[in-house]
Design brief:
- With about 325 residues, this protein is mainly alpha-helical.
- The chain has a domain at about 100-215.
- The termini are far apart.
- The chain contains 14 helices and six strands.
- Helices cover about 35% and strands about 5% of the residues.
- The chain has helices at about 10-40, 45-55, 55-60, 70-75, 80-85, 100-110, 120-125, 130-135, 150, 155-160, 195-200, 215-220, 240-245, 280-285; strands at about 165, 210-215, 230, 260-265, 275, 295-300.
- The model is unreliable at about 1-10, about 20-35 and about 65-70 (pLDDT under 50).
């Protein structure tokens, strides 16, 4: 009887089918193991697990090498928790603000540059923890959207944001995070900039350098402006001319004595003029920027000679 050898291609086909079968068996076994890993928690916390799967944390811990950890990744080993009948103190719960391990647990993963100085921030000093603002199991991760979340504590900022002159926070054009570092950046402004540089990020036309400059612009914008809202135009701390007169003396041709006749202003004895009983009106009933329009700085000399061109009039 003559034996017939099967072609080698048939043996390769059998090996391929066998390999596929083994892979499918291992995958199904792994899925069962992962599902069983969370079954004890799901028996009591089925709603929490359902919402967790839709969250960013669920997406991260739901696959790859992190999947087998499941709930243990944040809550620790739940054996004692189950044996004690669900006593809260037997499990780590970041949602409890009195749990000292909760904040440390979050920072063990969220350890990037933006969290380096969290312990020195105003939020940390006020006892604010991660779960005061964030929901670990929620889909979007925040209790509320910005700025409403911030307004829960910063009610005075909310009031200021609705004043006649305000940054467009309510209109949705900027958010609190555009200017403020929440997790460990500088306590006042974000983006590693001081106040002046941060403002110039949007108001680049005010930066200069200019040939004729206004000193406060080179120092700090908050000397004249308030950030969140004001009753004065252009977010000024005070209306004109009160704001200008807080630094500048009375103008040589305004706010002089209400007399009829010639006068010599005490701040500029080299000048003289003619006064009337209405001499105070140009200063107190007008705005300084009606004449000094280039208040932030200019490359054009002013039209007066005595100021050396530095009157910021054009």
């Amino acid at each position: 009887m003559k034996l017939v050898r099967k072609p080698a291609a048939d043996w390769r086909s059998w090996h391929l089918l066998l390999s596929i079968g083994v892979c499918l068996l291992l995958m199904s076994t792994g899925a069962t193991t992962t599902a069983n890993a969370e079954e004890p928690c799901a028996a009591c916390h089925d709603e929490a697990i359902e919402t967790f799967e839709a969250s960013a944390h669920g997406a991260y811990f739901g696959g790859g090498s992190q999947q087998a950890n499941g709930c243990k990744s944040c809550h620790g080993d739940g054996t004692q928790h189950m044996e004690s009948g669900g006593e809260a103190q037997e499990i780590i719960n970041p949602a409890r603000t009195d749990d000292p391990e909760g904040e440390k647990l979050c920072l063990s993963c969220h350890s990037g540059h933006s969290f380096d100085d969290w312990a020195f921030t105003g939020h940390s000093a006020a006892g604010v923890t991660c779960t005061n603002c964030h929901l670990v199991h929620a889909e979007n991760g925040n209790r509320k959207s910005s700025p409403e979340l911030c307004y829960d504590c910063h009610s005075e900022v909310r009031a200021a944001s609705y004043m006649p002159s305000h940054h467009p926070i309510a209109e949705g054009k900027i958010t609190c995070q555009d200017c403020h570092g929440l997790h460990g950046q500088k306590s006042v402004f974000a983006l590693d900039d001081d106040g002046r540089e941060l403002c110039f990020g949007c108001h680049a036309d005010k930066e200069g350098p200019f040939m004729f400059e206004h000193a406060p612009v080179n120092e700090d914008c908050s000397i004249c402006h308030t950030a969140h809202g004001s009753v004065a135009d252009n977010l000024l701390k005070q209306a004109e001319p009160a704001l200008c007169l807080s630094c500048h003396p009375m103008h040589f041709h305004a706010t002089v004595e209400g007399i009829e006749g010639a006068f010599t202003p005490p701040q500029a004895t080299d000048r003289s003029g003619v006064s009337t009983f209405d001499a105070w009106k140009p200063a107190m009933l007008a705005k300084c920027t009606q004449c000094h329009a280039a208040i932030h700085g200019t490359d054009m000399p002013s039209q007066t000679i005595s100021t050396g061109g530095n009157a910021l009039t054009r």
